[in-house]
Design goal:
Blueprint (H helix, E strand, L loop, with lengths): L19 E10 L10 E9 L14 E7 L7 E7 L11 E9 L12 E8 L8 E8 L7 E9 L18
Antiparallel strand pairs: 1-2, 2-3, 3-4, 5-6, 6-7, 7-8
Length: 173
């Protein structure tokens, strides 16, 4: 079944392969992007399984697809595909879970208002090892390109981590 918004419009994404998994969608409306204010950016879990009836990853590297809409979700086009650029043992990871896009509402350090941060939970193909990693990327051009920032937090089979969430409190922290 294709992913769709809860209103009339086109599909956000329609799978290309029968073993393609697309779940856990997130959408952010840009509010600190100048002339791009109002643009919608969407991403979701995107990886491949051993078959259409399986939940087991097939080992193909996963990714977060970033799609944009300038007409309130009536149409969507791919802006970028974000992948695991690590080359250490077990990488690139196959399973990309729980993406979260945060738009900086103000300058944070050397990064201007409107900078985007994408955080996701990455897992290896052998989920029995169950080592989870919150991995982050940053975009200075409103989602067109993404720089890898690396692992922020690691979990284990005894202490897994789930659903990264980023916010700025009223103290600017």
């Amino acid at each position: 079944m294709p992913a769709a918004a809860d209103a009339e419009g086109s599909y956000l994404w329609e799978r290309i392969q029968r073993n393609e998994t697309n779940t856990y969608a997130r959408v952010v409306e840009l509010q600190h992007a100048g002339v791009l204010n109002g643009r919608l950016l969407a991403t979701w879990e995107h990886h491949y399984t051993r078959g259409p009836q399986s939940n087991d990853p097939d080992g193909t590297p996963g990714s977060f697809i970033i799609r944009q809409s300038d007409d309130q979700g009536a149409t969507w086009e791919t802006l970028a595909t974000v992948s695991d650029t690590q080359t250490t043992d077990g990488h690139p990871f196959s399973v990309f879970y729980q993406p979260y896009i945060f738009e900086y509402p103000q300058q944070l350090g050397k990064y201007p208002r409107g900078t985007l941060l994408l955080v996701g939970n990455l897992l290896p193909a052998n989920c029995s090892e169950f080592s989870t990693e919150f991995f982050a990327w940053r975009s200075a051009d409103h989602g067109k390109t993404w720089d890898s920032l690396g692992v922020w937090q690691r979990g284990t089979s005894q202490g897994g981590i789930w659903e990264p969430f980023v916010y700025l409190d009223d103290q600017g922290r």
